[in-house]
Amino acid sequence: MSAASWASLQAAAGPVSRETFERLVEFESVFQKWNRRINLAAQSTQDDVWRRHILDSAQLARIKPEAKRWADLGSGGGFPGLVLAFLLAERDGASIDLVESNRKKASFLQAIVGQFNLPARVIARRIDEAYPFVSTPQIVTARALASLPVLLELSAPWLTASARGLFHKGRDYRTEVAESAQRWSFDLLEHASATDAHGVILELSDLRQLT
What we know:
It comes from Mesorhizobium ventifaucium. The chain is α/β, with parallel strands linked by helices. It has helices spanning about 5-15, 20-40, 50-65, 80-90, 105-115, 125-130, 150-160, 175-180, and strands spanning about 70-75, 95-100, 120-125, 140, 165-170, 185-190, 200-210. The protein contains 8 helices and 7 strands, in the order αααβαβαβαβαβαββ. The chain is globular.
C-alpha cells in the first residue's frame, strides 16, 4: 500500500504543488501495473515504491532547484528521470532527456511522457551513442546504473563541459570515489540521502582527465 503524502514529497523535493503530488500518486499506480508486466524495478520494492523510488528520486530537485536542463542516463523504470520530469513541469522552460537503450523500458518511458504530457524526451539509444542527441545539460543524473568510474566515463562529454553530475550511491561510495580519482580530477560535494541512512548523492563538477 502506498505511503504517499504531500508532506513527504515536499520534505524530499522542496516546494511542490498539490497538483504535482497528485500526478505522482497517479504515476505510482501506473508504474505498479507496468512493473508487473515488464519488471521495471525489483519486486522486493513493490510495496514501497513511494519512498524507495519516488522520494529517493525527487530529492535531486531540492539539490539543484534552479537547474532547467537535465539528462538522465539509463532511465530504466523512470527513476530518477521521470520523477524529475514531473517536478520540472513546475519550472518554466525546464526539460529532461531520458536515455534508455532497452526497448521495452524506453516504450514505458515514452508512454508515461505522453500520458502525463511531461517536459521530457526519450532517447532510445545506448549512452555512448546518445551524445549528439542529448540537449546540452546542466545536470546529469544516474541511479543504480554503474560504478562511479564507469559513470564518469559515460558522462565525461558533458561533465568536462560545465555540466554537473548528481549520482545516487550507497555505503561503499568512498571506494568508488578513490578509484575514480586515479583517472580524473573533480570537485565533489556529498549530500546525505533523504531516504537512505547509508546513501549519498554525489555532486561532481569540473571533471578533468588526469594526464
